[in-house]
Amino acid sequence: MTLKTMLVTGASRGIGAQVALLAGRSGYRVGVNYLRSDAAANAVVQQIRDAGGQAMALQADVGQRDQVRRMFAELDAAWGALDVLVNNAGILANFRVDDVDDDNVEAVFRANVFSSFFCAREAVRRMSTAHGGKGGVIINMGSVASRLGGLGGGAAYAASKGAIDSFNLALAKEVGPEGIRVNALRPGLISTDIHDVHGGIAKMQLMAKTAVPLGRAGDSAEVADVVLWLAGDTSSYVHGTLIDVAGGR
Ligand code: NAP
Question: Which end of the chain is more exposed for a tag (fewer CB within 10 A), N or C?
């Protein structure tokens, strides 16, 4: 039986790494995209292989269209198939609007928004029945910041995740009739290194004790479980929706 193929962007660390590892354990062939963390990405790949699965590391800045095209070409050459795209890569921001410079705001929108357009474009060209494909699943990583406004200094981040909410809905309408299911998760406070720009994990976890109704921060594995559910057949009628994974926040 041919394994299904899942490409996870930003899979060297944090949520993406847990998605890749769980996908490997769940029988997917996994493309592990990353930007700079060669060692961490290769460790994720090795863990999947050690457990008997298949995985490959794919270095590419997903905010750059030419690098995205190259990454998909590498995936085509290796496996010739794509069943699930997880648009997970992203960066946090901590600068006030009156301190915004062009490079900062562009970096956030490239990593968090352009990346999803560039990767979805390539994925739809391969999955859509209108292009001769057999359908598939696209999962976008939003954030509760889209409805809460993010932490102080988080306007660019919150706005970028607001764009993902809308992108998710629009893409679902566009490609649902062509066999592609599209959904987004909106995590809350999850313990990863992304919080370094706001003082680190320990500070965030302290805040979570009072800010989150469940009284704690979430774990990347708790987000990965929902991603894998959305990727699989047991969510076959879930489409165009936003699922908060935020402990009630
Ligand atoms: P993280 O631990 O900082 O990991 C970020 C990952 O994205 C890394 O693998 C990084 O690669 C990769 N990456 C960043 N920019 C990239 C680019 N331009 N091209 C390719 N890869 C890139 O972040 P995380 O907390 O797991 O967040 C993952 C997603 O969840 C993001 O979209 C984030 O906005 C969202 N989210 C997170 C939280 C949270 O509390 N953690 C809450 C809501 C939403 P390198 O290792 O090579 O740098």
Answer: N
Q: What is the three-class DSSP state of 86?
A: strand
User: Which atom of ligand 1 is closest in space to residue 37's alpha carbon?
Assistant: 47
At residue 140, the 3 state secondary structure works out as: strand
Q: List pLDDT tens digits, range 36-76.
A: 999 999 999 999 999 999 999 999 999 999 999 999 999 99
Using the mean position of ligand 1's atoms as its centre, give its distance from the Cα of residue 132 in Å. Answer: 32
d(CA 81, CA 74): 11
DSSP assignment, residue 3?
A: P
Give the span between the Cα atoms of 238 and 227, in whole angstroms: 12
Whole-number Å distance between alpha carbons of 199 and 204: 8
The reported pTM is: 0.98
Residue recorded with tokens 């989150």: 212
CA of 90 to the centre of ligand 1 (A): 4
The residue contributing the CA closest to ligand 1 atom 32 is: 90
The pLDDT tens digits for 13-37 are 999 999 999 999 999 999 999 999 9
Atom of ligand 1 nearest to the CA of 111: 18
CATH of domain 5-245: 3.40.50.720
Domain ranges of the chain: 5-245
Q: Verify whether ligand 1 is closer than 6 Å to residue 37 (CB atom).
A: yes
For 205, the token pair is: 């976890």
From the CB of 162, is ligand 1 less than 6 Å away? no
Query: In whole angstroms, what is the distance from residue 126 CA to residue 34 CA?
Result: 21
Burial class (CB in 10 A: 0-12, 13-18, 19+), 234: exposed
